[in-house]
Amino acid sequence: MGKLEGKVGVITGGCSGIGLATARKFAAEGATVVIGDLDEVNGPRIAEELGGLFVKANVTVAEDVEALFAQAKEKYGRIDVAFNNAGISPPDDDSILKTGIEAWDKVQNVNLTSVYLCCKAVLPYMLEQGGGSIINTASFVAIMGAATSQISYTASKGGVLAMTRELGVQFARKGIRVNALCPGPVNTPLLQELFAKDPERAARRLIHVPMGRFAEPEEIANAVAFLGSDESSFITATDFLVDGGLSNAYVTSLESDFE
Ligand code: NAD
């Protein structure tokens, strides 16, 4: 028996990176998967591979988000897990000195407003069925300051953390758990794109990871499956860090320290 046997999970941003690895993990653990993403090229193929449903949705548009959860409920009868994960990290979001209001707004909409919309859309279904698990993707950058700033991204993820805490507390006695997932740097297209343009920034970030490497998306997916499952039944309102020790390191050791 998989740890998500019989559950229905909705995943936004499920066509790439962390969301895709999680969709595959959920299916392997017995869940029925519904993917909401902009990517209508890959979405239908991925849903078919997993025996689930793809709904084309822009997570910044309230009607799209409502339709995503409504279709999941209509087709499968319930929604047990919502992984609100779609996010962007565009290059024009940079130091506050360089970042204009358009770049700021775009990132706030995709990374933060989308989480508000998804939680607002799914909570009535979870209240009606008397339980559920919501996992909102934040980031380690919401917990630590970086000199190599992406100001709107960082602020958006801080908003995700604060909103998640409040929802976790508000709905705890209704059987609904709400947790924020805080990955460290993960080897996905989002990060590859950012660092391909700036290898110095990539090298600089790796210095701070005690494990000396980026996470693989599957390692993050394992944590999401845990948070979505009943194994995490006493965990809510957390900043759930999966960061290779990054947020607790002052200096990291190097291979040469052990020679
Ligand atoms: P990714 O770029 O590999 O995948 C993002 C997915 O979201 C894509 O399938 C894309 O089509 C979809 N998407 C983007 N905008 C959308 C929109 N408006 N509506 C619907 N779908 C949309 O990214 P990833 O690295 O897997 O990141 C997933 C989440 O994890 C993001 O919230 C990101 O901020 C967060 N995160 C990533 C890292 C990392 O190092 N990769 C670290 C911490 C947190």
Describe what you observe in this structure.
The protein has one domain (8-242): Rossmann fold. It is globular, with a radius of gyration of 18 Å. Helix 3 runs parallel beside helix 4. The chain is of the alpha/beta class and 259 residues long. The chain has a 7-stranded parallel beta sheet with strand order 3-2-1-4-5-6-7, with helices on both faces. 44% of the residues lie in helices and 14% in strands. It has helices at residues 17-28, 43-50, 62-76, 101-129, 151-170, 189-196, 199-207, 217-228, and strands at 8-12, 32-37, 53-56, 81-84, 132-137, 176-183, 239-242. Residues 12-13, 15-19, 37-39, 57-60, 85-89, 110, 137, 139, 183, 185-186, 188-191 line the site of nicotinamide-adenine-dinucleotide. Nicotinamide-adenine-dinucleotide is lined by residues 12-13, 15-19, 37-39, 57-60, 85-89, 110, 137, 139, 183, 185-186, 188-191.
CATH architecture name: 3-Layer(aba) Sandwich
What is the H/E order?
EHEHEHEHEHEHHHE
Number of folding domains? 1
Ligands, ions, cofactors: nicotinamide-adenine-dinucleotide
Structural class: alpha/beta
Overall geometry comes to globular
Task: Note the gap between the termini.
Answer: 45 Å
Just give the CATH class: Alpha Beta
User: What order do the strands of the largest sheet run in, or round the barrel if closed?
Assistant: 3-2-1-4-5-6-7
CATH topology: Rossmann fold
Largest sheet: 7 strands, parallel
Strand-residue proportion:
5-15%
Total number of helices: 8
